[in-house]
Predict the 3D structure of the following.
Amino acid sequence: MKTLGVILVALALLAGSVQLQATRERLFPVSEADEDAMYMRSAETLRRLSGAYTALTADGYWIRALQYYGGTKRRLQAQARVPEPPPMLAVPTSDDFSLLYPMLDITTSLDPRFTIAYRFGAVFLAEAYPRGAGRPDLAVALLEKGIRAQPDKWEYMEDIGFVHYWYVHDYRAAAGWFQRASEVPGAPWWLRSLAATTLAQGGDRQSSRTMWEAIRQSAAIDWLRQDAERRLLQLDALDNIDELQRRVDAFARGAGQAPSGWDSVVRARVVPGVPLDPSRTPYELIQGRVHLAASSPLAPLPEEPRQIDAPEAPPR
Amino acid sequence: MRAVVAIAVNVFRESVRDKVLYNLVLFAVLLIGASYLIGQLTAGQDVKIIKDLGLAAISVFGLFIAVFIGIGLVSKEVDRRSIYSLLAKPIHRQQLVLGKYCGLTLTLGVNLAVMAAALYVVLFYMAWGVSEQTVRSWDAPALDPALLKAVGLIYVELMLVTAIALFFSTFSTPMLSAALTFGFFIAGHFSSDLRNFQDAVDSPAAARLARGLYWVLPNLAQFDVKAAVVHGQPVPLGYAAVTIGYAACYIAMLLVISMLVFSRRDFK
């Protein structure tokens, strides 16, 4: 009986402390800046302090980098819902991801063979703001660091080519990296043809589809495969939007004015119903322009790479 | 020899009575909890991180056992005054020191074996049903037998740490022994800095002193192959053999000195 009483008192005290902590967090919230603070920026100092446990420390920093990236992205997306700027303009526009590269740099300095930190980290860095840091230059720097640690890692070379292709739109550099990757023993055969296609055709949609399909089929990491599948669906959405826009333009020419919504277009049987994107979210029709809905899991659509020597496309 | 074995078995029994094996429960809870949490967090790298965490936990738990039991091996007998009845028996003081050491290494061995088995069980669970493509993305298989090399070298390192703790416990207080043993453990992992000290100082005498300390202090960094094993890097058997040989010499040296100090100690 006495033991039970002690247990109950202990539980009551624990509940009280939990309640007090919740109250303190509500009344005096910890600022995000404090939560994101990096106490150590020197990988060398951390390596020395962690002694025999550098790999575990690297894991800790990797988990922090994931949480920082995911948390910042979620916060930014919830905040603004602003249209994504074209990746070509995705120079450092914000400090919101400012700690991402230092975290990844420390992770990979503590564990120079941490493959995922290089590959995912490069995607996080290169992805256009606000989905990522919008820093393809840092993504390339991170991957080049990986190549210095593991010179035979063709995946890093492929990823650098991919960053040049998709985010910088420098197809010659992309083709050069795909070629370099293809020359590493054990690299997949399709890298050589990807290099040739990229050099010849630049960034047309079919080339992009070929590249993502190859990545989807070859990705050994689920997350990369899922990302490739999402990119392929985005390309499908771009195809759909082009086709729908063509029909809407024809309808507008006949009607003498741009439709303000799908109702009139559906009534005229230009389309059989409100069209859905590949994620089953309705497309939006605003002032005669077809858009992907901001609520769609595929939003925002990427700025499509231009073909080599093609004139600059009008804004979508 | 029989006396040494009897003392060793007794040390092991005493550690069981002292609930040292409770740390195994803590280890299992830590690993199982971490495997669940980390699986949600780390974007497909859960196996790598569980290996890192498991090996680090084996090393840390083992270190605490080695230090905190090692420092009490002799001092506890003195504090409880049971040393008098022990020394009244037909055993040499050297046998007592050796038996205590063997008993603690037996305790450590059992602990590490169980922790390694638990790590394999958790890794088996995490690798269960994982797609072929994901498996190909790992640097090394989940149930990589090479993990045993890392565990083995951790064990050898802990045997060396135990010898250091026992050495200090033969003439010092438990608190001071613990501090000194931890100090040696930390210094042992930074010994490469002593080797390269000449690059940082102008004084040839200081450089020579640092170089001398590098050779004299135990070099524990060489036992750390955790990262290499987790990334599927080869750990040559020759490397392991030379490293174990180094440890054997160093342990023997420490035990000889410990026996000498203990045999001369006056318990009046």
